[in-house]
Amino acid sequence: MSESYKHKKVITIGTVSEITGLTERQIRYYEERKLIFPERSQRGTRKYSFHDIEQLMEIIEKIEEGVQTFEIRQEMLKKEKKRDERKIRDDMIRGQLNARFGIQQSP
Fold this sequence. Notes:
This protein is mostly helical and 107 residues long. The chain contains four helices and three strands, in the order βααββαα.
């Protein structure tokens, strides 16, 4: 399955700035704080996805509510951990069901 359009890193920082209302400096700051993760082109240009823009909009809302960037990062790490744990659990269950019913995994 191909990558969802929401996750393709094709949007420049200038466009992200226009869409979000953030300055380029603010966007780079959130990257430094490990709240967003743009890719870099061969020439070093930052490239963002629609998902990154959604993430920035959530960050803006939380900042306006008085939440600190450190707290936002901690919340993100907790969500990532839960997501990883859920994936491991689902993979284990899938493996057990496959073993029980003799289902072969395709490569």
